[in-house]
Amino acid sequence: xxxxxxxxxxxxxxxxxxxxxxxxxxxxxxxxxxxxxxxxxxxxxxxxxxxxxxxxxxxxxxxxxxxxxxxxxxxxxxxxxxxxxxxxxxxxxxxxxxxxxxxxxxxxxxxxxxxxxxxxxxxxxxxxxxxxxxxxxxxxxxxxxxxxxxxxxxxxxxxxxxxxxxxxxxxxxxxxxxxxxxxxxxxxxxxxxxxxxxxxxxxxxxxxxxxxxxxxxxxxxxxxxxxxxxxxxxxxxxxxxxxxxxxxxxxxxxxxxxxxxxxxxxx
Amino acid sequence: xxxxxxxxxxxxxxxxxxxxxxxxxxxxxxxxxxxxxxxxxxxxxxxxxxxxxxxxxxxxxxxxxxxxx
Amino acid sequence: xxxxxxxxxxxxxxxxxxxxxxxxxxxxxxxxxxxxxxxxxxxxxxxxxxxxxxxxxxxxxxxxxxxxxxxxxxxxxxxxxxxxxxxxxxxxxxxxxxxxxxxxxxxxxxxxxxxxxxxxxxxxxxxxxxxxxxxxxxxxxxxxxxxxxxxxxxxxxxxxxxxxxxxxxxxxxxxxxxxxxxxxxxxxxxxxxxxxxxxxxxxxxxxxxxxxxxxxxxxxxxxxxxxxxxxxxxxxxxxxxxxxxxxxxxxxxxxxxxxxxxxxxxxxxxxxxxxxxxxxxxxxxxxxxxxxxxxxxxxxxxxxxxxxxxxxxxxxxxxxxxxxxxxxxxxxxxxxxxxxxxxxxxxxxxxxxxxxxxxxxxxxxxxxxxxxxxxxxxxxxx
Lengths: 267, 69, 382
Hints:
By secondary structure, chain B is α+β, with helices and mostly antiparallel strands.
């Protein structure tokens, strides 16, 4: 099937700003699904609220556009009730880690077979550029006009600590790695977290004088490095890209199926 | 390994938003923005069909068709 | 007919009713006095291949059951006041996206943490207006376990018929007290199954286009039709729209589908109302005391009767007006500050004849309480 078959063409051109990284994520996601040869009918995409979460409207799968921060909770209901479905959950950084933080850590803890894609542009874009838990200290935002004093999360560390069995990070510059990681994340049987650093040239970029979308992508290339690289040893400030965790642990729906067997068999 | 041969390089003008990402990151400087701020393959003869523009386009506006062997 | 007879808590009667109705997915969170519902279902559901999950919080529970409803299952969650407050946003999502689900609120003392282990009926208005925006809601209640069972089944039937969330508003007394329940046999109570679309694969399916009879056939996630579900105002394909015609049409549809069928959903019971000069209007556990006082005063010649409401929303105004028409006194018996009393005053022809007999201190309102208040109302002192 061609890439075109996986999108709802009638809604293009999409609503994202020129140069928005989310479009690149959509691009990579579609290609990952196509390469895996998945049927559109077996995929349920569940998203929250925000620019990132609008991605679900553009794909030709079963799509569930939910409420802010709660995509993983809805997704848990979808997956547990029908484990044969392939559930993919794209969310923004605020959606997943701020209001959705609790659901994020618990979905990871359960190791339920869902693929969470955190499209991290370090800002609340849809509402006009407020700071998020990923904005980081010293940055400017509409609600941090004197600079942000909030420390930021490390999504990879959080996902690890919460028990996710597949944790990866990449950027919208590294499109090849992004497509590969998304594929692996989907194939992984357990809770997968893929953080994709994405550019918001309109708000985060403009407020913080980061230049154009192109400039921001060049920056993401410059400030990241493969896991354990020599560059990282020389410059600890660099952010690592790649797969951090890939473990095989009991998956939630399978474990519950065993509960059902026990409940039916024993007394 | 034999290089891929470009069959066709298509850019959907309706979908392209002129962000310039494909222009900047093309390894052979094939692309540029025209007067309408839309991406065009100005130097198509230099295209090596690496398809990075297609993968990086946020608008899914680019389709790179490669010659089948 | 050999019905199974059980001596159980009201919470367990809810479980029996839900399982009878075809429940096979529950997500919930512990909260007094509803926790037993979750506990029983954690045992019963897997025995029949159903799924139970204790989610991380109340909000997640509500969201999870919506997700599970979309894969074609009959779903339930259960909570009390504080949890009911938390669920409102997601409940509104189910209203907007027209997703069948049942939410049990076993009321306790409120507001806030309130009195977790004592009864109140303080969430009636919240059940109606808890979630934001113009909308309509279906809310049922019951005063005894047999009716708890019946109303629970009814809730699932209404949820499926109208593609709407239904709130089952019980209370701590009914939830925790033990009483006899006769579990109906299979087939005794008709069940409404999930209405699925007859539209074939490859043909354009509109998830939000009503049939001629007004019903809205669904399609399960995973089946042949791929569509979008959103909490944004949407067109009949489920895609977001802010077009004024579409906004108006959708909001009207969501409200009208309930309000226009209020008559069909009005459940109530009448006791000795034919010649009643004093009409007690009550619901939930309060109605037990109200019935008791009616039955003890009648033999003494008092022309007193009881209208027990089982449908709280849409409020059965016509029913209330009809039965209170001839009453000299209409006395609403409830354990709150007059939430239903307010509605009754609006509904009757003579609002000046409507009085409130209530108790708000967490102590179950007794027949004696009602009797004393009746005497006061009638100017007879205590």
